[in-house]
């Protein structure tokens, strides 16, 4: 195949900032070790760009959701340090765990049985303490299939860690009960936000994801977490509009006076949905704001270049991506802003 020409979208990952974010969360985790949620291709920032930096910073526990995510992570860290949150759904999943050495997170009595049938061995156990997502109920802890597991990490997951909610203390109390019933090597309760709830929540291991990648789920993290990902898009074409000219689908925007515009290579498939192109939305040239005009339309959007009239085709614009600032007006959560970054941002 011919060599690819340069792309019109690019994503820069600052691995030093990523490592700093992990260290900041590790410091906040006190005595507890700090792991990393690296599922969904490190929240779309790329396993190859992120996992080595986390490993070199000192992270030893990596969490993915799917079995299909093990291999990419295992090219950077020993498989025994990877835990698979969805657990085994069938004999093939359990066999894959046995063959690769990745640790299954057991979420139910039936998953525990599958694990035993595959030969068993060390595993993680997720206990449900009130989120009612994945996890074994407290009442099932005495089931022989669960009681006979060789549990390395006993874990649970908080439903409301990003807010001050009575659920947090309630889940903490239930998790403490579970730690007294289930023999385990280490206990783990909190995600990024939960780390800020204080040492009572830290146990032996914390499991941040979002905040590693620049997300700020609670104000306590605001001064500690910095932006990791910097998406940029190129201008494909420039135009000069006259007063009365309209722009894009449904002619939603009409120029009130003559203005230069730029057609930018950025659209839905790149995670830039129409909801992100509303009132006040803009791309950046350094600190200069270039307002987005009209509807985001499939693979393109249009910016008003009045503040930077010398820009030309091929010039790069930055997509604002300081997650806590961008999320409120985007119609998306910080998680969604990250994980919907499209394939076309990936280096090839
Ligand atoms: C995704 C996930 C995490 C990380 O959560 P963040 O809110 O992204 O920090 C931790 N634990 C479990 C079980 C998860 O699914």
UniProtKB/TrEMBL annotation:
Start and end residues of each Alanine racemase C-terminal domain: 228-348
InterPro entries: Ala_racemase, Ala_racemase/Decarboxylase_C, Ala_racemase_C, Ala_racemase_N, PLP-binding_barrel
Record carries keyword Oxidoreductase: no
Keywords, ordered alphabetically: Isomerase, Pyridoxal phosphate
Residues the entry annotates as binding substrate: 133, 298
Reactions performed catalytically: L-alanine = D-alanine
Organism superkingdom: Bacteria
Keyword Isomerase (UniProt): yes
GO annotation, cellular component aspect: cytosol
A Pfam family assignment: Ala_racemase_C
Name of the top EC class for this enzyme: isomerase
Required cofactor names: pyridoxal 5'-phosphate
GO BP: D-alanine biosynthetic process
SUPFAM superfamilies hit by this protein: Alanine racemase C-terminal domain-like, PLP-binding barrel
SMART domains per record: Ala_racemase_C
Residue list for modification N6-(pyridoxal phosphate)lysine: 39
Coiled coil ranges: none
EC number assigned by the record: 5.1.1.1
Name by which UniProt lists this protein: alanine racemase
Originating species: Altererythrobacter rubellus
């Amino acid at each position: 195949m011919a060599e690819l020409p340069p792309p019109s979208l690019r994503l820069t990952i600052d691995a030093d900032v990523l490592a700093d974010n992990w260290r900041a969360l590790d410091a906040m985790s006190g005595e507890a070790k700090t792991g990393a949620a690296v599922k969904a291709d490190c929240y779309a920032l790329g396993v190859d760009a992120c996992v080595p930096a986390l490993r070199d910073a000192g992270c030893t526990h990596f969490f993915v959701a799917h079995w299909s995510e093990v291999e990419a992570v295992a090219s950077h860290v020993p498989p025994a340090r990877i835990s698979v949150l969805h657990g085994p759904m069938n004999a093939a999943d359990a066999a894959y765990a046995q063959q690769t050495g990745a640790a299954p997170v057991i979420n139910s009595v039936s998953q525990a049985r599958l694990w035993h049938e595959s030969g068993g061995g060390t595993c993680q156990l997720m206990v449900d303490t009130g989120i009612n997502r994945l996890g074994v109920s407290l009442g099932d802890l005495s089931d022989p299939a669960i009681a006979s597991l060789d549990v390395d990490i006993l874990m649970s997951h908080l439903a409301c860690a990003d807010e001050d909610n009575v659920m947090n203390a309630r889940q903490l109390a239930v998790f403490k009960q579970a730690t007294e019933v289930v023999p385990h090597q280490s206990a783990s309760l909190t995600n990024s936000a939960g780390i800020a709830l204080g040492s009572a929540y830290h146990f032996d291991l914390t499991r941040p994801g979002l905040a590693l990648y620049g997300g700020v789920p609670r104000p306590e993290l605001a001064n500690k977490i910095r932006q990791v990902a910097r998406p940029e898009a190129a201008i494909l074409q420039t135009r000069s509009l006259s007063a009365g000219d309209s722009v894009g689908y449904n002619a939603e925007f009409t120029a009130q006076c003559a203005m230069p515009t730029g057609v930018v290579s950025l659209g839905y498939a790149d995670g830039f949905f129409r909801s992100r192109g509303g009132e006040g939305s803009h791309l950046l040239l350094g600190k200069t704001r270039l307002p987005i005009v009209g509807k985001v339309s499939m693979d393109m959007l249009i910016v008003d270049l009045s503040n930077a009239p010398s820009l030309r085709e091929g010039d790069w614009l930055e997509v604002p991506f300081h997650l806590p600032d961008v999320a409120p007006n985007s119609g998306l959560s910080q998680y969604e802003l990250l994980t919907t970054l499209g394939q076309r941002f990936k280096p090839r």
